[in-house]
Design goal:
eight-stranded parallel β-sheet, Immunoglobulin-like, 39% helix, globular, single chain, 662 residues, alpha/beta
Length: 662
């Protein structure tokens, strides 16, 4: 049992949280990192015991174009500030891991600067991939090189070069000796050379007991990265997608299937794959923004804290803040926050209160860290499972429906169970318990003997308020709606119409205007009503509890839904969804020139099973080609990039990949 087996992470993007300038002037250090020390108390108060922070080191802009691996970014302070920050975390029992950007460097990195100066005579010319002095790049250096993601600002390191491996190994040793860091999150691990990662694992095994390596991996078979010789864990993007879409679509089968598949990857053992679970981070939209029904914040987080894996909270999301991904900037995902603005959040903010309660439950319930996973019941709208450890069975129930639901479930050998969030106690009858799960809510049922209080350090009551997920259900939905309304200054009807227009433009629909596109507006309105959402009207805007920003989400989800439907579903809904299908096809066709004709073709009623299978395979191939076509517009597509795409044969994953380019 290592510290990370029981970790609950708090993820900090420091340049954003501290309000640092977007560009580094390379001036005198500004000690912004010191402003994060008061956050340590807050992090502990909401039940987190580990921090993932980064990027931290000297860089040009957003932090991932490293200039100096051994110097804290001058916008954040000095190395002494970072040493003090980690030291204070350790004093309070909080572990710390840094962001390790070891796939590429910035152009101001000393080795790259030497190549610019000495060209063919540079001793560092082999530190980067495919340096070609007969080529050129967007900065007109007179030579070309392999970059990351099509961005010449990010020069890809030659990870097979022993000098590069030795240098990065020394960086890790320096971070441990200088700052006493407890682990590293490897940026872009899905494109790192595997032998390179194995070399980093050897260093990790040497520098400090239980030094943790976690990699950023978006797609693929996680077992390739998570094993004894490579990494300890990777980011669980599969579950991230399932958690929000499974609630938006009222489809718990998607979540349960994802969990079962990932658990199977680990040999159906709780210690097999301990993935880094999250509902949002610095690269994706905030979960509060992503959810169509904001009350689903509760069951989403109950699952985050109870499913197999290591849970993580992205700074600010415990307050229920917004964060929508923009086309050319992630600034809205990485805002500056003042802790003073949230000083009473645990008492007054239901989102914070829930996250804090779940953190305490997690820390005081070993079965949630070490227990096996067994599915107990599953419908589109209800889901229950158990985590079993050392004879104790903890039962988790969630409900995404607008009505309460009673579940009758097999239980362990305890006489009674207690709801860790509500404090409700239920008796075991003939080896089963009957529990009522509130609408849009969830509960963690922990064994308790007769007369025994819940063993979670008073989780059921924080301050004077009961901490129940019912705070997010029907009784208080009007309060939450009011909070949403206050957070969105979108009351004006003209502003709302403009937001809808922008939303439709994003997905290739003709922009909505009062004069020329009334028919298109009615089309979107009709589609929204079919999807069970509030209508979108031209003069009156969106219904009271829906807002203009959600119009963007409506259109995006409709398009995604149209693209994700199976052949059989398309047959059944062809007449009512013909226009939406056309929108989906147009979005793919226009964005990706090489999408195959098969991907856009609709099956005939009398087609054979073999044809349908071929059709599905054609869609996968078409989506893969579409992704490669977009990549090629950003720069050269390497063999590794091509392999990463062709290895991904999951339809919904490919669709999400395509959407990420917008």
């Amino acid at each position: 049992m290592a510290w990370y087996d029981e970790a609950v992470f708090y993820h900090i993007y420091p340049l954003g949280l501290t309000g640092a300038p977007k560009e580094n002037p390379y001036g005198e250090p500004e000690h912004r990192l010191n402003t994060l020390i008061p956050w340590i108390d807050h992090i502990k108060e909401i039940g987190c015991n580990a921090i993932y922070i980064g990027p931290l080191f000297e860089s040009v802009g957003h932090g991932y174009e490293t200039t100096d691996y051994k110097k804290l970014d001058s916008r954040l302070g000095t190395n002494e500030d970072l040493t003090a920050f980690v030291g204070e975390c350790h004093r309070q029992g909080v572990k710390v891991i840094f962001d390790g950007v070891f796939n590429h460097t910035g152009r101001d990195f000393f080795a790259f600067q030497d190549i610019k100066k000495n060209r063919e005579n540079s001793r560092y010319k082999d530190w980067y991939r495919n340096v070609n002095f007969w080529g050129n790049n967007q900065f007109n250096d007179g030579f070309s090189y392999e970059n990351w993601g099509g961005y010449d600002l990010l020069a890809k390191l030659n990870q097979q070069n022993p000098e590069v491996r030795d240098y990065i190994g020394d960086v890790i040793r320096f971070w441990v000796n200088e700052f006493d860091v407890d682990g590293i999150r490897l940026d872009a691990a899905d494109v790192l050379d595997f032998e390179y990662m194995k070399a980093l694992r050897q260093v990790a095994n040497e520098v400090k007991p239980e030094f943790w390596l976690m990699g950023e991996v978006i797609h693929g078979d996680y077992n390739r990265w998570v094993n004894e010789g490579t990494l300890h864990s990777v980011t669980n993007y599969h579950l991230h997608k399932a958690l929000y879409s499974g609630h938006n679509d009222h489809n718990y089968f998607e979540i349960a299937h994802t969990v079962k598949r990932l658990y199977g990857m680990g040999g159906n053992r709780p210690e097999g794959l301990k993935l880094y679970n999250f509902v949002d981070n610095h690269d994706v939209e905030r979960i509060y923004t992503k959810l169509n029904n904001k009350a689903h914040f509760a069951p989403v987080h109950v699952l985050l804290y109870t499913l197999p894996g290591v849970p993580s909270v992205y700074y600010g999301s415990e307050f229920g803040i917004e964060g929508r991904k923009e086309r050319h900037s992630d600034d809205s995902l990485r805002p500056a926050l003042s802790l003073g603005d949230y000083k009473d959040a645990i008492e007054e903010n239901p989102y914070t209160r829930l996250v804090a309660a779940l953190g305490k439950v997690r820390q005081n319930t070993p079965a949630l860290s070490y227990g096996d996973y067994q599915e107990l019941t599953l419908t589109n709208r209800q889901y229950a499972f158990s985590r079993n450890y050392q004879g104790e069975s903890v039962i988790v129930t969630v409900n995404n429906d607008d009505k309460d639901f009673t579940m009758n479930l097999p239980a362990g050998n305890a006489a009674a169970y207690v709801g860790a969030l509500s404090g409700e106690k239920v008796a075991v009858d003939n080896g089963r318990i009957s529990v009522s799960v509130k609408a849009n809510s969830g509960e963690i049922w922990i064994p308790a003997s007769d007369g025994q209080a819940i063993k979670t350090g008073g989780v059921a009551d924080i301050g004077s308020r009961s901490v129940g997920t019912a705070d997010f259900g029907k009784p208080d939905v009007t309060v939450l709606a009011k909070n949403v309304q206050e957070k969105r200054d979108m009351d004006d009807a003209e502003t709302k119409a403009e937001a809808v227009s922008k939303a439709t433009e994003c997905v290739g629909i003709v922009p909505v205007t009062a004069e020329g596109n009334a028919e298109k507006l009615r089309e979107i309105e009709k589609a929204a009503e079919k999807a069970g959402k509030s209508s979108v009207g031209a003069p009156k805007g969106i219904a009271e509890e829906e807002h203009a920003r959600e119009a963007v989400e409506i259109v995006e989800e409709l398009v995604a839904e149209a693209m994700l439907e199976s052949v059989e579903e398309k047959k059944a809904k062809l007449e009512s969804r013909e226009k939406l299908d056309a929108v989906a096809e147009q979005m793919i066709d226009e964005a990706m020139e090489s999408l195959t004709e098969t991907a856009g073709k609709k099956p005939e009623e009398d087609e054979t099973e073999e044809y349908r299978e071929a059709f599905e395979k054609g869609k996968i191939a078409g989506l893969q080609e579409a992704i490669l076509a977009i990549m090629s517009k950003n720069g050269a597509v390497t063999d590794q990039m091509r392999k990463d795409v062709t290895d991904n044969v999951y339809h919904d994953s490919l669709i999400n990949w395509i959407k990420s380019f917008r």
